[in-house]
Amino acid sequence: MGAEGAVSGAGAAVLVPLPGSRSDRPAGRPGEKMAVAGSGWGLAQLAEALGSSEQALRLIVSILMGYPFALFQRYFLFQKETYLIHLYNVFTGLSIAYFNFGMQFFHSLLCVLIQFLILRLMGRTITAVFTTFFFQMTYLMAGYYFTATEHYDIKWTMPHCVLTLKLIGLAIDYYDGGKDLEFLTPEQRRFAVRGVPTLLEVSGFSYFYGAFMVGPQFSMTDYQKLARGEMTDVQGQRPNSFVPALKRLSLGLLFLVTYTLSSLYFSDEYLISDDYMEKPFWFRCGYILIWGKIILYKYVTCWLVTEGVCILVGLGYNGKDQSGKPLWDACANMKVWLYETTPLFTGTIASFNINTNAWVARYIFKRLKFLGNKLLSQALALLFLAIWHGLHSGYLVCFQMELLIVIVERQVINLVRDSPPLSTLTSITALQPIFYVLQQANHWMFMGYSLVPFCLFTWDKWMKVYRSIYFFGHVLVFTLLLVLPYIRKLIVPRKEKLKKAE
Description:
By secondary structure, the chain is mainly alpha-helical. 68% of the residues lie in helices and 0% in strands. The protein has 27 helices and no strands. It is globular.
């Protein structure tokens, strides 16, 4: 579902974070030193000097290291034997895992090995798909359970969350590869894995350095093309992707600077502070509005930087447009201009974490077509995403709010379109800037409102914030759900209703 389809089709969630990074031991606990390697390298001191955590600094270093890794692959491994590409990706990916999590990298290694055995022993069967889904999700949930506390931190479940989706997708694509083409949709034909992947191939796919830590998601078929040297705009030559990659890197660093400076004034901690609770109602709401915008920039930073790595090595190649210009957005997780300018909640969904949205649409939402109920399929897709994020109540509340807001927003858009007075009013050019500003404020107010439980994730914290603003988001959304049908009956002409029914 690219971007827009993620919203209107699957209702896939916009709010996908650095997966699995939510709740590890707080800094200073004994377990922290066990989770990383090389603490004596001075990174702790550097992180302290920068005002960051050591884990966050390791993450940034890891994703930036993708650039020299990609340059080496471009200039020394392009169109070499595929086993060399796989070995290189396994070595670099495991090195990144060890650098960040120490010996806890064995979690990913174990799941990759078991996944390979499932494919080989069970073959292209629905049993293999269900076994994969059950095992990989159970392992991830167990990881959340045994590492969870009430503190935000980066731990081994962060890349493992990305890996879980990747391996489930691989199992489904491998299953599709055993079907006749006539029984597959065009999308399924594109991603179906026809051959039998080797252990080295599955491992290289899993540990690719440009996407191991925070994504993006990509298919085994695209990875195989990359290994064969086919992901290039000029066949037989290295991809001309240096400038596009540099642009995404620069944009990512710009967002990093913006987030770093802004987070000095807008933080999760302040939301539950006594000072925040003592502020007037308008201030509390305004703070959530701006905080919701700023807090997502850390994810935007990581995705833009890793997208640049994928572009540089060629994985971002997405064919050519009608004018013959190469496209490098195959691994794009952000539509930055849309993200910054859209006044709609659904517009943000369409621009944010695009590849994960596409994954959910392809492997969850569209596979639930047999239910015959689009809304139910959307709800189940969001439920999957909430569980995939973790075991805290905040995720369920967040995605529940997302579904309700999207439903209300669509009803309002349809109401304005079908009502002649409202349609005429919104078409007045002089008023459109005012409407745009009001829409933006409303949009980011509800985005921030939904993010409160997502970022605070435990009942006591997000309930404290919601009580302080009198649950106004829930009150307004549920009120609109009740009254909009009656408003529509009053202001939409009957002929418009009949035309819509036809």
